[in-house]
Amino acid sequence: MKVKTHTFNGRKYRIEIAPDGANGVCDQYSPKDRYLQIFTDLDRRKGLITAIHEALHAESWTKSEKIVDRVSREIGMFLWNLGYRRIK
User: Fold this and answer.
1) Phi and psi at residue 62, in whole multiples of 5°?
2) Is residue 14 domain-resident?
3) Residue 42 or residue 57, greater confidence
4) Which run of H or of E encompasses 7?
């Protein structure tokens, strides 16, 4: 994976593809070591949706989980239907 870090809303996050766990995790509480994890045991479409979901959290923690969930599914399905896929 090429992406090692990414800046969301002016905050730098370490990006990890982890071998197991829940769908994903986005840490907002460690100002010096923020991270976003996406777990590899997800199928590709679910992985895309999870990446969007965690990126939305990193971008704005004011949105409710319900809104982040809905928006990430809608954007993920839109991108999936356009043909976007993870390249290994």
Assistant:
1) -85, -15
2) yes
3) 57
4) strand 5-8
